[in-house]
């Protein structure tokens, strides 16, 4: 259902302005946070979820700043009033998917390639590297 709305928006891009609030895995600008909030609101409505009963798990870029995670949590608790909220680093989650908690994750996405060592379930930020080439 959500995909159909995305396709309709893309097909009508000549009459609408499309925004991508996430750039290189990060939400940076104030207006992008407002747009991202509208996207989350739309998702909750389309899924017909009563957010006060939702336990939410959200992934986060290994390069996101602490303030970004705090803002995400504030929005989820203050605006959407979710029951519980957890943010998990995408690199750590990828490692968990293999059944391991330590290793090296290399991810190449739409706009970013990164390498993140994971030890005991935690990304080691001092040893992560990124290359803004991908796709």
Give a structural overview.
It is a single chain. With 135 residues, this protein is α+β, with helices and mostly antiparallel strands. It has one domain: Nucleotidyltransferase, domain 5 (2-Layer Sandwich), CATH 3.30.420. The chain is 36% helix and 22% strand. It contains 4 helices and 6 strands; from the N terminus they run ααβαβαββββ. α3 links the parallel β1 and β2.
What is the CATH class? Alpha Beta
Beta-strand portion reads 15-25%
Number of strands: 6
Overall morphology? globular
- Please name the CATH topology: Nucleotidyltransferase, domain 5
> Could you say how many structural domains there are in total?
1
In terms of structural class, how would the helical and strand content be classed?
A: alpha+beta
Stretches where pLDDT is under 50 for at least 5 consecutive residues are: none
Question: Which descriptors would you attach to this protein?
Answer:
135 residues; alpha+beta; Nucleotidyltransferase, domain 5; four-stranded antiparallel sheet; 22% strand; globular
Which secondary structure elements does this structure contain, and how are they paired or packed?
Blueprint (H helix, E strand, L loop, with lengths): L1 H10 L18 H17 L8 E6 L5 H14 L4 E6 H8 L5 E6 L4 E7 L2 E2 L5 E3 L4
Give a short synopsis of this structure.
By secondary structure, this protein is α+β, with helices and mostly antiparallel strands.
